[in-house]
Amino acid sequence: MTRLENLAVARPVDTASLHALDCSAGDLADVMTAVSWAREFLAEPNPDLGRKGPVCPYIRHSLDERLLHVVCREDEDCDSYELRSTVRKMKRRFAELQNQAGRQSAHLVSILIILPRIDRISADALNKLHSRLKDEFVAEGLMIGQFHPECDAAGLWNDHFRPLQAPIPLLAIREMVSSDLPFLVGDPHHAATYLERFARGIPAHTRRFMVDRLVPADPNARGECPVGQSRPAAQRASSDQSPPIERRMTVMDEAEMYRPPSTGAIG
Questions:
Q1: Which has the minimum average pLDDT: 116-120, 206-210, 249-253?
Q2: Quick one: CA torsion of 68, 77, 145, 7, rounded to 10 degrees?
Q3: What is the end-to-end Cα distance of the chain in Å, rounded?
Q4: Which of 16, 45, 170, 184 is 20–30 Å from 262 (CA)?
Q5: Cα 35 from Cα 166, distance rounded (Å)
Q6: Where are the domains of the chain?
């Protein structure tokens, strides 16, 4: 087994499996710290969260079902080819783990890629790695999130809450869920992937509301279309110029009800 393959083995979160990770004693201590943080912070309610329930609604079930897996990497540079290769390998491994878990539990599968040796003073390098990889994960219906001691991203429900601050830098991989819209709304390509997966469950009036805010003035542009900013009236009135997202939504059957982002999303 090569060094890359050895370090890319994902272990389920239990004491015996974690001690089988191929990492130094110091790195293993950091892995244990990250797992404890997941149990005590992500899996629990927080008074600063701004909504009821745990910070991450699914991780407690992932832990209980032994469907949370951990990888430890020795990289010090977030721009290393080996690290990017491992993260992509974990994307493929994620699908295998879901198949093993079975249909009813597949949504609980998660992978934490612990990065104990990267810079803990600044989150910039990890943020760049996350941005570089997010497109390909979202395109396959997956979410990849970055957690870092200095991650300054605000919570969805409280601007002063910092749900992505973790004691040890890491990346997390999980399945995209219907409550992930706030994390995808800023990019029309990400929004299109979301809608292809979940639009059948969104009532027609909500679809129209979302299209107004998701589709930028230039349908070919790749950039942010802020929530609350509508397209020009002339463009909305022109059905012949309807961008792909809107065309896809108008042909879908109306379903029961859109679930608001109260479960599934972190923060």
A1: 249-253
A2: -20
A3: 39
A4: 170
A5: 10
A6: 3-175, 183-250
Q: Would you state the structure tokens that stand for residue 251, as one six-digit string?
A: 């042909």
Please give the structure tokens belonging to residue 52.
């009821």
pLDDT digit string (tens) for 22-38? 889 999 999 999 999 99
d(CA 144, CA 252): 28
> SS3 letters for the chain?
CCHHHHHCCCEECCHHHHHCCCCCHHHHHHHHHHHHHHHHHHCCECCCCCCCCECCCCHHHHHHCCCEEEEECCCCCCCCHHHHHHHHHHHHHHHHHHHHHCCCCHHHCEEEEECCCCCCCCCHHHHHHHHHHHHHHHHCCEEEEEECCCCCCCCCCCCCCCCCCCCCCEEEEEECCHHHHHHHCCCHHHHHHHHHHHHHHCCHHHHHHHHHHHCCCCCCCCCCCCCCCCCCHHHHHCHHHCCHHHHHHHCCCCCCCCCCCCCCCCC
Conformational region of residue 91, where left means phi above 0, alpha means psi within -120 to 50, and beta covers everything else:
alpha
* Cα angle 225, 228, 230; round to 5: 70
Question: Phi first, then psi: what are they for 227, rounded to 5°?
Answer: -60, 135
The rounded distance, in Å, linking the Cα atoms of 89 and 2 is 14
Q: How far apart (Å, rounded) are the C-alpha atoms in residues 36 and 39?
A: 5
